[in-house]
Amino acid sequence: MSTAHLKIDLTALAENWRALNALSACPAAAVIKANGYGLGAERVATTLASAGARQFFVAAAEEGVIVRQALGPGPTIFILSGHMPGDTALIGAHDLTPLLNSAEQLRRHLDSTPDHGFGVQLDSGMNRLGMEPGEWAGLRAQILARAPALVMSHLACADEPDHAMNARQLRAFAEMTDGIDAPRSLAATGGILLGPDYHFDLTRPGIGLYGALPYADARPVVALDLPVIQIRDVQPGETVGYGNTWTAPRPCRIATVAAGYADGLIRAIGAGGVRLFAGDTACPVVGRVSMDLITADVTDLKDDPAALAILGPRQTVDDLADAAGTIGYEILTSLGGRYRREYLT
Ligand SMILES: *Cc1c(COP(=O)(O)O)cnc(C)c1O
To answer: Residue 283 and residue 298: Cα distance in Å, rounded?
Structure first.
């Protein structure tokens, strides 16, 4: 078998939710958009529902359907993109709760599903999604009369605790919502760590559940082992891989493992000092990452390895992200469809 082995620790996932729920001055929801940040929305949803999560957030109505089918009736499933053309039947049939982002979405919702619950997303300064303060002021009475399930906004800089934008958005959100009866939500993972002023009535952790920054105390959730297909001896002066970017400085043993950029191990990690691990021993990646293969220098290993780990206790999602000049979110959500996924419970 030459498919790599992705291990997803559902116990760690549940513990991360419990810890972020305990850090929140209110209940924590769970953000499971993009197929549960790449780990599998169904297993993530059922695990976190068992841990106690009652509210879930996804990006699109189609994702909400998958989560509803996994969870059954009961939990609230919020749709961050709101009520888009074509969503009406899904919202009704699967009891999804759109977070309306504009007057246009409000009109669509009230025209098509007037008796179906909804929430509202407000723009407190990020300028990405949500009603602008002026738009909200005009619609507020009409919306609040219908008892929205949630009034929320999103922070642009919460992973930088000292950024002045955090307090500015908190003020803007408070100005728009102080005194309303509807439940309010502002904080994702980064916002939880900013402290209780940011928590309101519901927090919305995503990345921290999956074991990555900015939640530095998270338990790692993913491990990834890559089978070794072939090992060869390379003489000093010989090159390895596309473009001859690496030349052996000494007699080397080179292992070729079965995963590459088509599996989300993006080509940029090749230049960033990523290593593959045989237990605790680090083997540097050498040469370019190709579509299905990566080469590593295993000269210092006593025995030829059957597999090497690229994600595990010695190298995290955030280490890979650093090496590639990106963020843990992108590494996780890029994890490929080709892996043999194993859920550890
Ligand atoms: C993705 C997202 C979250 C979760 O953010 P994390 O940084 O992953 O915790 C929360 N709220 C909104 C609106 C989002 O788009």
So the answer is: 5
Domains 10-210 and 222-344 equal at CATH topology level? no
What does the pLDDT average to over 50-68?
98
Q: What is the pLDDT of residue 222?
A: 98
As a CATH number, domain 10-210 is 3.20.20.10
Q: Report strand pairing: 246-247 vs 239-240.
A: antiparallel
Residue 154 Cα to ligand 1 middle (Å): 8
List Cα–Cα distances, 212 to 49, 139, 163, 231, in angstroms: 20, 38, 20, 33
Is 3.30.420.150 the CATH classification of the domain at 222-344?
no
**Which residues form the pocket of ligand 1, taking CB atoms under 6 Å from any ligand atom?**
31, 33, 80, 154, 188-190, 204-208
Atom of ligand 1 nearest to the CA of 31: 4
β-partners of residue 57 are 31, 78
Find the catalytic residue in 7, 33, 198, 210. 33
Say what angle helices 41-51 and 61-71 make with each other, to 10 degrees. 50
Averaged confidence pLDDT in the chain: 97
pLDDT in tens, 159-206: 999 999 999 999 999 999 999 999 999 999 999 999 999 999 999 999
> Residue 254 pairs with which residues in a beta bridge?
232, 297
Residue 220 is given by DSSP the state: P
198 given a catalytic annotation? no
Ligand 1 atom with the smallest distance to the CA of 208 is 9
- Displacement of CA 248 from its chain's centroid (Å): 38
Every domain of the chain and the residues it spans? 10-210, 222-344
